[in-house]
Amino acid sequence: MNENVIEVKKLSKQFATTIALENCDLMIKKGEIFGFLGPSGAGKTTTIKLLTGQLKNDSGDILVLGENPFSSKMKQKIGIMSDNSGLYEKMSVYDNLLLFTKIYDIDKSCIEKVLAEVDLLDVKNQQVSQLSKGMKQRLIFARTIIHSPSLLFLDEPTANLDPSTAQEVREIIKKLNAKGTTVFLTTHNMEEADEMCHRVAFLNHGHIIESGEPEALKLKYSKQLIRIKTDKKDYTIPLDKPLLKQELEQMNELLMIHSIEPSLKEVFLTLTKEES
Ligand SMILES: Nc1ncnc2c1ncn2[C@@H]1O[C@H](COP(=O)(O)OP(=O)(O)OP(=O)(O)O)[C@@H](O)[C@H]1O
Question: Which atom of ligand 1 is nearest the CA belonging to 188?
Answer without folding.
Answer: 25
